[in-house]
């Protein structure tokens, strides 16, 4: 049984400018132990959906079942109790600026009725987990963004939640700090079995830590499944768009020789695990078919801890060999996908040539 079941959830906001359908018939199952990504462009409905998971936002229709309890059927008191199992962190940390790091973490423990001594003991343990025990007496203004988010994570863990909701938790952080916070979230998921729901607009965040992902657009889930499957075979236009924006390991992004003879050729995307096994296949294909091939993009990406390579090739349009070249690559175990014309930023090549 999934730990979070979202069944046919819709949410409509009435504003002075009219009605906004923020969620339209969304259904999702999140299993215990998942790190589940919810990704989409701005306004897709991600925050509204995640706020429905703890009923900060009550769906207009549909049901949310968390740990076998239908939230809509709970009294206010029961709902407050249920929310103790659901921690939440935010983009802007939401710390109490007038209180020390220690007191920020103690705060929810006091609300739970813990004594000062108990709360402090637990808060120090939590600060140890997030690597900030030595900053307990500091104030939030004395911390970096990454450190502030660590305090927020410690505070969110204070009620021993089974679920942690992260709403754009790394969006205000630089890439290096983002990686360290994602590592911490992964560690928390593995050590304590906490189910994590990650709201983001960055595919890089999803592929770094999420095992499952739902892609949202205009209030709907347009695609969901294992991260690795969506990375390998994106079906929706928005998934492709988000993948295109995710450059992976930019230092390894290379532009290889382009053959000027190809203009507006057939573009295919190839995903592979072993770079070494891949490049001779391309070279041999070119030798076999004696056709020019543009390599528009080559990058490696870490998908859930596994290094995956992605390459976009352009084959000569109209050539009678295109189908045979695709077959040649497939027979050598490569996964291919033909791309529509606009992918990779219209006609612009990675190196800026047209
Ligand atoms: N309280 C509200 N009142 C009115 N409209 C709202 C409210 N909350 C959200 N919306 C609208 O619902 C839609 C979905 O918003 P939501 O914040 O869930 O999207 P999002 O995908 O999280 O976007 P972003 O990444 O920009 O935060 C938007 O059109 C937004 O303007």
From TrEMBL:
The reply to whether Membrane figures as a keyword in the UniProt entry is yes
Kindly give the InterPro entries that the UniProt entry links to this protein: AAA+_ATPase, ABC_transporter-like_ATP-bd, ABC_transporter-like_CS, ACT-like_dom_sf, MetN_ABC, MetN_ABC_transporter-like, NIL_domain, P-loop_NTPase
* Keyword Flavoprotein in record: no
Keywords of the record: Amino-acid transport, ATP-binding, Cell membrane, Membrane, Nucleotide-binding, Translocase, Transport
Domain ABC transporter, by residue range, is 4-243
Q: Name one GO molecular function term.
A: ATP hydrolysis activity
Q: Which GO terms describe its cellular component?
A: membrane protein complex
- Give the matching SMART domains: AAA, NIL
GO process terms (BP)? amino acid transport
Question: At the top level of its lineage, which domain of life is listed?
Answer: Bacteria
Q: Give the matching PANTHER family.
A: AMINO ACID IMPORT ATP-BINDING PROTEIN, METHIONINE IMPORT ATP-BINDING PROTEIN METN
Full protein name: ATP-binding cassette domain-containing protein
Source lineage: Bacteria, Bacillati, Bacillota, Clostridia, Lachnospirales
């Amino acid at each position: 049984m999934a730990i979070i079941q979202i069944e046919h959830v819709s949410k409509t906001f009435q504003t002075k400018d009219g009605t906004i359908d923020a969620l339209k018939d969304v259904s999702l199952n999140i299993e215990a132990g998942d790190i589940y990504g919810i990704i989409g462009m701005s306004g897709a409905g991600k925050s509204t959906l995640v706020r429905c998971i703890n009923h900060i936002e009550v769906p207009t229709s549909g049901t949310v079942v968390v740990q076998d309890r239908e939230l809509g059927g709970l009294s206010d008191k029961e709902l407050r109790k249920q929310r103790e199992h659901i921690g939440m962190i935010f983009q802007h940390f939401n710390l109490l600026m007038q209180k020390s790091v220690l007191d920020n973490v103690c705060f929810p423990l006091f609300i739970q009725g813990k004594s000062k001594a108990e709360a402090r003991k637990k808060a120090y343990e939590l600060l140890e987990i997030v690597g900030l025990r030595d900053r307990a007496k500091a104030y939030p203004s004395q911390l970096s963004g990454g450190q502030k988010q660590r305090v927020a994570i410690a505070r969110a863990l204070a009620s021993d939640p089974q679920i942690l909701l992260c709403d754009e938790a790394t969006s205000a952080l630089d890439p290096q700090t983002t990686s360290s916070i994602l590592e911490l979230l992964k560690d928390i998921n593995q050590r304590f079995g906490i189910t994590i729901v990650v709201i983001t607009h960055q595919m890089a965040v999803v592929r770094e830590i999420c095992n499952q992902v739902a892609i949202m657009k205009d209030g709907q889930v347009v695609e969901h499944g294992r991260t690795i499957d969506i990375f390998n075979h994106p079906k929706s236009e928005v998934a492709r768009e988000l993948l295109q924006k995710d450059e992976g390991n930019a230092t390894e992004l290379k532009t290889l020789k382009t053959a000027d003879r190809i203009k507006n050729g057939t573009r295919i995307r190839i995903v592979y695990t072993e770079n070494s096994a891949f490049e001779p296949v391309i070279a041999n294909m070119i030798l076999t078919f004696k056709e020019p091939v543009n390599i528009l993009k080559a990058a490696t990406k870490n998908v859930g801890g596994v290094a995956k390579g992605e390459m976009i090739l352009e084959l000569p349009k109209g050539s009678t060999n295109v189908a045979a070249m695709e077959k040649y690559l497939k027979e050598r175990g490569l996964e291919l996908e033909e791309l529509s014309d606009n992918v990779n930023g219209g006609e612009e090549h990675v190196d800026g040539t047209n």
